[in-house]
Amino acid sequence: MTDLSPAQLDDVSPEDVGPHDDEPHQSGLNNRLNWLRAGVLGANDGIVSTAGLVMGVAGATTDRTAILVAGVAGLVAGALSMGAGEYVSVSTQSDSEQALLDKERRELVEEPQEELEELAGLYVEKGLTPELALEVARQLTAHDALAAHAETELGIDPDDITNPWNAALASTVSFTLGALLPLLTITLFAAGVRVPVTVVAVGFALALTGWASARFGYGPAKAAVVRNVLGGLFAMGVTYLIGALLGAQV
């Protein structure tokens, strides 16, 4: 951790105050991360699970129809499952956030002085002097009491509550798009090349989703790409081996 000297702090003027354009900030960040999480997880799951499924079937048989039926069934079932799961999960989170905000609203009406003291106390814990903390709490309460308490006490932005429908739609669509890649490559190419083509296509797709998740989530790209690609290749290798073993015995 790097501390600024008093002289450096004194060099900051009111005209310099403001957020950095290249850094994420609280406003709208919750829903953005929620969409990102649902979209990336959906795409990755669509790619990996469908690729694993069709590779397993391709290991057992060269019948294009059997592979296609299995892949389409996996795509539809997976997309619906992902969408429903995201809706239930995010709805629970949203309900919890709304309940906490409702409680805070009641307390602000019934116990305004105690709430002001509590808010000032939280700013004291963050490093402000009691006098400055109380002044900050008063000004923020006058501006938007609920927002001040929700952000400081609960870590919630009242204007940025997670939307379960957005998460469900993002997850369903991204899963479908991700699943289409291995499904198309494994069925459109000839039996002799369909497996290696699918492996290469899936590897590139997972590298792309890994890079995108790191880029939009402000994380390290290399680690995300390596995790995605190695995990997907491992899954495909295992399912293909199982399919080949079972196909040889049937």
From TrEMBL:
Any matching Pfam family: VIT1
Topology of the protein relative to the lipid bilayer: Multi-pass membrane protein
Stretches for region Disordered: 1-29
Main location: membrane
Keyword Membrane among UniProt keywords: yes
Compartment annotation: Endomembrane system
UniProt keywords, alphabetically: Membrane, Transmembrane, Transmembrane helix
Keyword Transmembrane helix tagged: yes
Membrane spanning residue stretches: 35-58, 65-84, 167-190, 197-218, 230-248
PANTHER family, per the entry: FE(2+)/MN(2+) TRANSPORTER PCL1 (PTHR31851)
Protein name (Swiss-Prot/TrEMBL): VIT family protein
Naturally occurring in which organism (per UniProt): Nocardioides fonticola
